[in-house]
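Lab notebook, bench 4. The sequencing result for the construct came back, and we need a structural model before the next group meeting so we can plan mutations. Quick request posted to the team channel:

Model the 3D structure of this chain.
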Amino acid sequence: MTNIIRRLFGTRPAGYEQATGLNHEGFPTFARTLEEQYLQTLLTNTLGHTFYASQGDNYAATLELHAKMVAADPAFAARALVYAREQGTMRLQPIVGLVFLSQVDRALFRAIFDRVILTPGDLLDFVQIVRSKQIRPGLGRTIKDEINRWLNGISEYHVIKYGSDTGAKLSLRDVLRLTHPQPVDEQHDALFQYLTDRQKWRERFGERIPKLTPQIHAVELLKRASDGREIRTLIERGKLPYEAVTGAVKPDTETWDYLMRQMPYFALLRHINTLQRAGVLVDERAVNYVVQRLTDTDALRKAKVLPFRLHAAWVALTPRLSLSSTSRRRSSRRWKQRLLTCRESRVWSPSHPTCRDR
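Done. Here's the predicted structure in token form:
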């Protein structure tokens, strides 16, 4: 009872005399401005369950805040969305905000579309949110025009990675069938045709396929390849990304080693455990290569990888140590120790003594 009396009737701590509200524990707090609340929401990306709020509560509060901000100051909202996407490396909240902005200011929506929607994955999430009709009634001509303009900039890599049907999730094929873009050149005509009807793609473009879409041509040949040397030749000739290869064939150890050396930073980080299972990290040269890549501070900065990803990659190696052969276990332990030392040096730098020993 004494604690309740103190909380309800006690004097406020120094500095809190002007507090405007109470927090979840019943203590005085200050209300943020709408702009501050909006930036906080964008940069924390909170839509799931948290300590004080359920997923449903956070979701409802987020939608309400987006609606208030774009209504009060759409120009500020647009700048904040771009900042969160480019500087804060957030995805979901800026995409949700872009959908809200499309209802209020079409000019601003068009102006920042390319700065928020950076990848086909972003585009697919954007279309999914619009189609849910929880924010706006549907696509509409303005949105379709922006999507179609964006689609005329996709590459073969995008088509290979995001083009196939993925069950309940949208694909680029689905988006094409929704918006019906007009290709700006023959290459995009071939890409759109490949996405929507591969038989017609073969019939229409025939002998021009290797020139118009060399990567896709290599992927189609890869699907029928069985020899490891042939697979690696197709990878090199088509400059195929690892996603295309792993989706078409089951790579052997040598092929995984080849793919490892062309993986982007984040992909390499995510596939450390896979490379270990494939036997690639038994080779000390492969271990040295991975450590060198992951401790490259410039590459780390450009990849914009969140710190927990580095820790997760390190932890992912632990279960395999007890299952490995003696040589693999010894190599894995050396690899983990070097990665751990670099991680705990706080500055991932090739100049660190352990990282420099190659």
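The longest strand covers residues 21-22.
Will bring this to the meeting.
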